[in-house]
Amino acid sequence: MVFRKMLTKYGVSGKNSEPTDGSLVKESSVDAKSRIRKNHLFIAACAAGIIGIGACASLDSAFAPPAAQVQAASLSAWDGIKQQEKTSSDAKYLDRMNRVAPRIIAAAGGNPDEWEVVVFDSKQLNAFALPGGKIGFYTGIMDLMENDDQIAAVMGHEVAHVNFQHSAKRAGRAAQTQFGLSAAQSALSVGNVASAGLWMQALGLGAQVGNVLPFSRSHESEADRVGLRYMARAGYNPDEAVRFWTNMSQAKEGQAPAEFLSTHPSDATRIRALQKEIDLLKAGS
Fold first, then answer.
1. Is the pTM of this model over 0.70?
2. Is 158 annotated in the active site?
3. What residues does each domain of the chain span?
4. Catalytic annotation, pick one of 85, 114, 158, 277
5. Distance of alpha carbon 185 from its chain centroid, rounded?
6. Most buried of 19, 106, 112, 115, CB within 10 angstroms?
7. Contact, 62 vs 6, CB < 8 A?
8. At what angle do helices 29-48 and 166-190 cross, to 10 degrees?
9. Please, what is the Cα angle at 273 between 54 and 250, to 5 degrees?
10. What is the DSSP string of 8-58?
């Protein structure tokens, strides 16, 4: 149904078009093929990054799954993680989480009683939050966190992802990209462009590097900015976010992928952006 609505919105709805004056004008098969090809090229260009992200924003929304579907998928994933990963009962970790989580959730506008917080016993340097009120931290990343303020920095970031519906938006962009690549193949064939396979390879790389990954990095940067404000609102020291990411950078030294091919900003980029946001906070902005 979403797919049909998107096609209708961009004029690919059938052989007839309906003018605003109520008359019905039959479209020739040549005109119909031309219009369809133009719309396919538009969607393909969105996917490949030829058209700017802002111009394609309506397609992200068109393809985004309903909130109920996102939440159901999140809960299923959460149950799977809890079955596969060992949960920690160590008070050293649980006490810290139980101190920080209610304050961050409340600062972000949520009800702490409606969230489930779990610590996983693993050396992974990882933490996450899922739609439906789920927060997971790994003991590995908590061992790097020198104080509650640093836990709050990461938790604020993860809760911001949930509040800004980044999961649904990413799913919408992924679906848009998948459809766009198929449309591009069709458009290239209709246009009798030589070496369509080579073009598809270029579009595939362009879709990943030029569009999808920067879109994801923008979410990470937004979550950093908003997360800082959550932790400050909860009474934590935002300066500790910079200290944590400095420690994280050192712990990952030699392991991080190049920023251009990463869904996360590099640690150096993240630290600079965080410091800029901290300065704004201190200035009252």
1. no
2. yes
3. 2-65+167-206, 67-165+216-282
4. 158
5. 26
6. 115
7. yes
8. 130
9. 125
10. HHTT-S-SEE--TTS--EEPPHHHHHHHHHHHHHHHHHHHHTSS-TGGGHH
